[in-house]
């Protein structure tokens, strides 16, 4: 009896229209978002904007498809239908409360914007690029090329850090370790030169070096921390590798030793002194 009363609220003639609407909408969404993604890869300076447009389009299409399907299939005329719909809504609410929480969190993320598609984000043990903000979850591509899927609701209760906050560039910090007593002024100049001549550096923002003495293992070392911006957050690790390689070569040429080199020199001198003494 209950099944019969529920069926009278379903417009069977509207089912083909609803199915066709879903198929056309989903195919159109896939084609359009794919086109936006390819366009973003072609024009890298507009990549983040195009990815954000793709995320907004996805939310809008899903919402319109939901409304179109409901209005095509359900007969929204009777007050009794509202009562039945309310009962069904409560049942679905209890059954899918976690899913509904993630859906609501996805809408909040879209408008509150703690991060955006294309941002480099640190969340818990994971760090990488946000590739998609969906209705249920966020997809994060780690630097090891692994895809991590995180439910939207997790971002409402845990801290999240964005390295570029919607900008294409982002800061990269590269620590360079020197032996204590080495010419840190000359080393600082070489490090800054290596950064400013890199093919990946973004010179519209400052290149900064900070010097400190720290206790590392069993000895003091001088640490020069380079802070510079990379032109595209995707080149973050490539930029750091390029800086490290060229700085090490420049320091070696200038005769400025690293802590390990100083330690090996001390061991070598100590061995020579012992050999002479014997």
The pLDDT mean sits at: 78
Helix content: 40-55%
The sequence of SSEs as H and E is: HHHHHEEEEEEHEEHH
Profile the largest sheet. Answer: 5 strands, antiparallel
Low-confidence stretches: none
Cα-atom radius of gyration = 29 Å
**DSSP strand content:** 15-25%
Note the overall shape.
elongated
CATH topology of the largest domain: Alpha-Beta Plaits
CATH class of the largest domain: Alpha Beta
Indicate the structural class.
alpha+beta
CATH architecture assignment of the largest domain: 2-Layer Sandwich
How many strands appear in the DSSP assignment? Answer: 8
Lateral strand order in the biggest sheet: 4-3-2-1-5
**First CA to last CA: what distance?**
106 Å
Structure in words:
This protein has 278 residues and is an alpha+beta fold. It has three domains: 2-95, no CATH class; 120-162, SH3 type barrels (Roll); 170-266, 2-Layer Sandwich (Alpha-Beta Plaits). It is built from eight helices and eight strands; from the N terminus they run αααααββββββαββαα. It has helices spanning 2-7, 15-42, 47-73, 79-95, 97-112, 184-196, 236-254, 259-277; strands at 120-123, 126-133, 137-142, 147-151, 161-162, 170-179, 208-216, 219-230. The strands form two sheets. Strands 4-3-2-1-5 form a five-stranded antiparallel β-sheet. It has a three-stranded antiparallel β-sheet with strand order 6-8-7. Strand 1 (120-123) and strand 2 form a beta hairpin. The longest helix is centred in the first third of the chain and has 28 residues, at 15-42. It is elongated, with a radius of gyration of 29 Å.
